[in-house]
Amino acid sequence: MAERPSGKPTRAILKIDDLQVFYGESHALQGVSLTLESGVLSVVGRNGMGKSTLCNTIVGLKRAKSGSIRVDGREITSLEPHEIHRLGVGYVPQGRRVWPSLTVDEHLRLAGGIRRDASWTVERVYQTFPRLAERRTNGGSQLSGGEQQMLAISRALLSDPKLLVMDEPTEGLAPIIVDQVEQMLVDLAAEGEMAVLVIEQNIGVATAVSDQVAIMVNGRINRLMDAKALAADRELQQRLLGVGRHAEEAPVTPAEAAQAKQQLAEVYRVDRTADGSAETMPRNGVYRPVTDLPNRWNVPVTEMRQAAVDKAAPQDDLKKVFAIPFAERIGRTVLVVGTFDTKGKELRFVADRLKSLGLPVRTVDLSTSGKPTSADVPAMQVAGMHVRGSSAVFTNDRGGSVSAMADAFARWIEREPRIGGVISAGGSGGTTLATAGMRVLPVGIPKLMVSTVAAGDVAKYVGGADIMMFHSVADVQGLNSITEAVLSNAAHAMAGMVAQLPNAAAWEARRKLARPAVGITMFGVTTPLVQAVTKHLEADYDCLVFHATGIGGRAMENLGDSRLLSAFLDLTTTEVADMIVGGVFPATDDRFGAAIRTGLPYVGSTGALDMVNFGPRDSVPEKFRSRKFVIHNPNVSLMRTTRDENRAFGEWIGARLNAMNGPVRFLLPEGGVSMLDAPGQPFHDPEADNALFEALEKTVRRTPLRHVERVRANINDTPFVDAVINAFHAITPKLQRRA
Questions:
Q1: Distance, CA of 37 to chain centre
Q2: CA 533, 667, 728 angle in degrees (round to 5)?
Q3: 129-175 pLDDT tens trace
Q4: Span 266-309, pLDDT tens digits
Q5: What SS3 class is residue 109?
Q6: CB 593 within 8 Å of CB 655
Q7: What radius of gyration do the chain's Cα atoms show?
């Protein structure tokens, strides 16, 4: 146990108070409180206890529902990750996350920047990790797991952090490298350069580098204890930290032991071939390394809980990294994608039809079985794009594998240029996989899905994208007179769309001549406003109006991400109310995300936040039955929002506005946010409206680019229309008139 300085600063470098974090309905962190004044603090616990969620919340990758996180006295819970990083918080994520195409030296030079006064330099990194110096010209994908982990640690150190957050820093490292990392942490603590929060499964490392260890159980800090005491007490380690075990669990019964023995026996199976020789056969006919031997602690409920948390966890937004201009996305190559292990014959039929029409084709395998296929892009290559690597895709859990491959395909296709179109064929699983990638492509690139589910509700597959759903009629299983006709028509439809797709030069020429497009959100109760605004702008702008029914907002944001919009007139944000309260037209957590990512000019308002939408009156949840309603039509019931709900809307929207780096004007109509909120109308409630406005004004950080303004008018009145037009012209570039 290393000795560390006894002096402590007057202000803690990290102070966490009553932190509450959710993934949907799952309560991941439940009142976590921690204080790190200096040195190293280790947090230990079993898998699924919330340790990585704690890391992600500290660095801003996950939003807390409530509670406080202070770094060097500064509250950071409402800040974006890059702002937290600038305040001096470094992060070493679990899973390494190095760029496969950049060399070690390029990684470090990029992370180090051009700062001249940094205490951590590239040269110091090479001295600390000589192995990285030897591999400085190798790409990230050419490094071993241990070398990648060293690179991830070094990348964080180059930011000269006050607080270094390390999630499983020794995972996958050789023992000699683990010892080196352990000594480095001890040295950092002794030098006092920074405070370090370590999430660590290796109890030996955790107790060696820290004076105190926090033990996390079920999203709570169970206890904070002396590291030496924990290191010496093996029985306590087993009770609190045994993998998947709770202190209260009873000893294993003979029946449970027999069941575990039977499960172990099922892992290896020996079959006799015709010549009598023994041949080891894997499960499902697919060879896999055995990395998950059953044991008495493999509790399915724990695995299911972690899978649910992982599924709900926010994913990296690839649009923030290496965005490809739309003109460079357009090409002539058609991607034929799908599960080639089960639909190979059908998919190759489509590919052959396209090739016969003179189109270049690439086949992309999305299968999760692990079986080899003849596709141009193998499944292993696509799976490697998952944030946790291909091992997250090739598992024995089919549902989890499909979900992981869908995420990997979306990340893979996001980086592919020169795409002429994407076509696929399959059932519900294949449709889930293929459309996940189609949805991230810009509007305008042809996307066609031949599917057995195309005759039903396809909203979850299409989202806000321009995906054509083509009903397969018969199951996509084998070639016959029906499937051949349907697949041929689908291939010909794709060929026709690709043939008419402009090339990059033509698209650029068309874009330069076209009126700039503006995305406008509208609801029935804000129609007069949108009609008046459109009339003012339509001579100079292509006004694209989106019905704010959840999918409408997503469609507008997709166009913004595709750089097909020049600005947002987001006047009807009612989808936020449905999302927070539970209506039928909800936004997603990514609402306003396109304005955040693109920095396009944004004019917004609180249109129709006085209401939550439900179906027929008898379909309204019981808990809302006593609320005030207006029956819009037999199929739509509108519920008036309360003061507290409006306050929540304002805080949520305000936080999203703070994340926008482009010019922002947000207008508050004091005379009501919809037709029904005007004086004398059934939803008129100045108290609720004012709670909304005050929450926005309190939450939004005003800057020269970001304004919040009150307007003394109802949202549909002429003074408010004028305010919208003035705000729009104030933040959009002046148009050059064409002859």
A1: 32
A2: 45
A3: 777 888 888 887 777 767 777 788 888 888 888 888 888 877 766 67
A4: 444 444 444 444 444 444 444 444 444 444 444 444 444 444 44
A5: helix
A6: no
A7: 28
